[in-house]
């Protein structure tokens, strides 16, 4: 079976409308990699189910789907309260503060959790950004 993303059948963004994915932080991280070698998936969107826990990672590198990202700043893990679809280019907000935009996804730790890689020119760890447990996370199209 052919992957519609890899074969070019899926346009850049086929979503006309969608609800935000929201939840809250269950862990704040203080870890940085300069040579992580994290390969982004070719798929530009992923579905996130209620009650799943996924990792939020920041990078200050611009990357396309399928690229490898070296500089990774670990922000934290969040639990999904309201599921939906996250698309490359969506905006991550914590405490109503814009953190960055979705650069892509990485499945290195599946089936435990998916890595959501966020581009931010001011990328840093969750601890250094002052992120706290239980803070509201919203990922939405703006």
Q: How would you explain this protein's 3D organization?
A:
This protein is mainly β and 142 residues long. The protein has one domain (21-140). The protein is 0% helix and 47% strand. It is built from no helices and 11 strands. The chain has strands at 21-33, 38-39, 45-48, 53-59, 68-69, 72-82, 84-87, 91-94, 97-106, 115-119, 136-140. Strand 9 and strand 10 (115-119) form a beta hairpin. The radius of gyration is 14 Å and the shape is globular. The chain starts with 20 loop residues before the first strand and ends with a strand. The model has no long low-confidence stretch (mean pLDDT 94).
Summarize the structure.
With 142 residues, the protein is mostly beta strands.
Largest sheet: 7 strands, mixed, barrel
In one word, what is the shape? globular
Q: Within the largest sheet, what's the order of strands?
A: 1-6-4-10-9-8-11
Q: Strand tally, please?
A: 11
Structural class: mainly beta
Order of helices and strands: EEEEEEEEEEE
Provide key terms for this protein.
single chain, 142 residues, mainly beta, seven-stranded mixed β-barrel, two-stranded antiparallel ribbon
Outline the fold blueprint.
Blueprint lengths: L20 E13 L4 E2 L5 E4 L4 E7 L8 E2 L2 E11 L1 E4 L3 E4 L2 E10 L8 E5 L16 E5 L2
Parallel strand pairs: 4-10
Antiparallel strand pairs: 1-6, 1-11, 2-5, 3-7, 4-6, 8-9, 8-11, 9-10
